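Translate sequence into structure tokens.
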Amino acid sequence: MLVGGLAFLAGVADVMTFDHYGCYANMMTGNTFRAMGSLASSQWGEAAFHAALVLTYVMGVAVYR
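Result follows.
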């Protein structure tokens, strides 16, 4: 029950951040796909934003380790 509740709340957080900011809170795969889609459609600002999200996430994991 606890694990299911935590998984549900993580999904709720993802939906809320996607609706408000247009990105995923903890799914770097989704942000990577959005960055590549933005690159393919020549939306440079969107691509840079999503690439920066992925880069800062990776840097945060590296600093934590």
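Note: Helices lie at 2-21, 28-40, 44-64.
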